[in-house]
Design brief:
By secondary structure, the chain is mainly β. The protein has one helix and twelve strands, in the order βββββββββββαβ. It is globular, with a radius of gyration of 15 Å.
């Protein structure tokens, strides 16, 4: 199992019929469930949500997103001085972000009606028992991520 954040580059094929976005370099063998997050309003911040044992994969379907990731050092009282990894996702790229167990994630859409797909390697009943939540203002000043870069 990976211990670090990985980015799997997908492909975008385009011709007169339209576009195909693929993730041919990703094997879905460990994925147990998938869900889609739709933010109708870009002011919403979703997170921090952490898992000791669950892995997640993030893929932008529509719009742009800022994804913050933190490796948790102390589950009951994580250090406020941890430095997040910030990843910008856009529907202009076919890119899958692979987040290992032990990380917290936080999402913010950069435009209204943004959509992101999330995959998990844990069935939902198990995920409920591995859920840690922290204040969204911890580790990132989200006012720096207000505008879309499109």
């Amino acid at each position: 199992m990976a211990e670090r954040i990985e980015i799997i580059e997908g492909e975008i094929f385009s011709d007169h019929r339209g576009e195909i976005y693929s993730l041919n370099n990703f094997e879905f063998e460990d994925v147990k469930r998938a869900y889609i997050i739709h933010h109708p309003d870009k002011s919403v911040i979703r997170g921090w949500h952490a898992h000791k044992h669950e892995r997640k994969w993030f893929y932008c379907i529509k719009g742009e997103w800022t994804l913050g990731l933190i490796k948790i050092d102390d589950w009951d009282s994580p250090s406020p001085s941890l430095i997040p990894t910030i990843i910008n996702l856009t529907d202009k790229d076919s890119k899958l972000i692979c987040v290992p167990a032990g990380y917290a994630n936080c999402l913010k859409a950069k435009n209204d009606d943004a959509i992101i797909q999330v995959f998990s390697d844990v069935p939902l009943p198990e995920a409920y028992g591995d859920s840690w939540r922290y204040d969204s203002s911890l580790w990132i000043d989200w006012s720096e991520f207000q505008r879309s870069h499109t």
